[in-house]
Amino acid sequence: MDKPLAQDEIDALFLQARTKATQQKPQEINPRIQPFSFTRGGQINNEQMRAISLLNDIFARNLTHNLGAFLRSHFQVNLVSAEQLPYAEFLQRIPDICYVGSVRLEPLGAICVLQLDLNLALPMIDLLLGGEGKVAAVRELTDIEESILGSVVEIICRELSAAWQPVGLTFTFEKRQMQTQIARLMAVSEKTLSVSFEMRTPQVQGILNLAFPAVVSNTILRRLITDWGRQNRRRSPEMLARMEERVRQVKIGAALQLPSVRVSATELEAMHSGTVLRLGLPASTMAELRVAGMSLFQAVPVRSGEHRGAQVVARNYPLLNQTAE
Fold first, then answer.
1. E strand or H helix that includes residue 302
2. C-alpha span between 88 and 151 (Å, rounded)
3. Last residue of a domain, one of 233, 251, 266
4. Residue 316 shares a structural domain with residue 171
């Protein structure tokens, strides 16, 4: 038979249980505290940055070809960086003498800032005027030069619109902004998306900077990431298998020919019907099977029914040997 507890013993048990709960409670509910900076709120994550880099890589490739054709000269554009920083810090990176223009972003109705180094702008103007695009001392542009450079900026805006078409954004060049007006285009504390491109001509290189306002980062990035994620989800194993199957059905040009040799112009001039041209190759020399202009195999000519063919004897391309092994 269990011994009944007295009232003081019951009170002692309750007191002991309450003391243990009080001692354990801070350890159970104590949150893990970590430092946090509110200035980092809304930072672009890695997935968003990959999507932004993809769009700007497309823009750089298209601008390389189209602006190079417009200038009638070799031209190269490469994406350098894409980062998020306050507009005040972006202003500090702008040289004292440079070309700065305002670009309207539709349908958002926002303003994007475009900055181009004058050491690059002046050679481009020289190319458009029929010159060689030589390096010139950095100076302010004349009214005529500013008008000529405006056509280059319009091409840049056109290629930006084509590259950013997936997010429904159109770039329209407004006008050049004077140095005193640049700070009024955005609030100095506004967090901007800054994208930098390196532009090269045969004579000089320079930087093209773009500063997008926060409304662009907050509005189009959500749409961009949605499309980016949808594209990644569509790349299922079944789709990759279908793509590989279709690629295997692509036809590539091939030709069986002797190795390249040099023939003098005198021998060619003396040729007539029935002439035997000596190529200076041993009779045992194998012909080359060239695929898409690249010598991949050594082969001999054969006949397959009514068709001519090439029988592969050896491989010339080392990577094919590695793959076969």
1. strand 294-304
2. 29
3. 233
4. no
**Does 275 map to a domain?**
no
Query: Which position has the token pair 């076969």?
Result: 324
DSSP state of 271: -
Mark out the alpha helices in the chain (DSSP H runs): 7-29, 46-71, 87-92, 118-128, 143-163, 214-234, 237-248, 265-269, 318-324
**Angle in degrees, CA 203, 63, 78, rounded to 5:** 65
Q: Kindly calculate the radius of gyration of the chain based on its CA atoms and give it in whole angstroms.
A: 34
- Domain match, 180 and 322 both: no
pLDDT value at residue 152: 92
- In degrees to the nearest 10, what's the CA dihedral of 51, 56, 61, 65? 150
Structural domain tally of the chain?
2
Q: What is the pLDDT of residues 30-54, one digit of tens each?
A: 556 666 555 555 556 666 677 777 8
Say yes or no: 86 and 201 in one domain: yes
For residues 228 and 94, membership in a common domain is answered with: yes
Residue 254 lies in a domain: no
- Cα–Cα nearest to 221, from 76, 64, 51, 2: 51
197 and 318: one domain? no
The range of the structural domain enclosing residue 85 comes to 46-233
192: left (phi over 0), alpha (psi -120 to 50) or beta: beta
Amino acid at site 228: W
Nearest in space to 63 (alpha carbons), one of 160, 186, 173, 190: 160
Q: What is the DSSP letter of 109?
A: T
pLDDT above 90 as % of the chain: 14
Asked, for residue 32, whether it belongs to a domain, the answer is: no
Whether the full predicted model's pTM is greater than 0.85, yes or no, is no
Give the Cα separation of 216 and 110 in Å (integer). Answer: 8
Instruction: Indicate whether 71 and 199 sit together in one domain.
Output: yes
Query: Do residue 222 and residue 324 come from a single domain?
Result: no
How long is the chain?
325
Q: CB–CB of 195/212 below 8 Å? A: yes
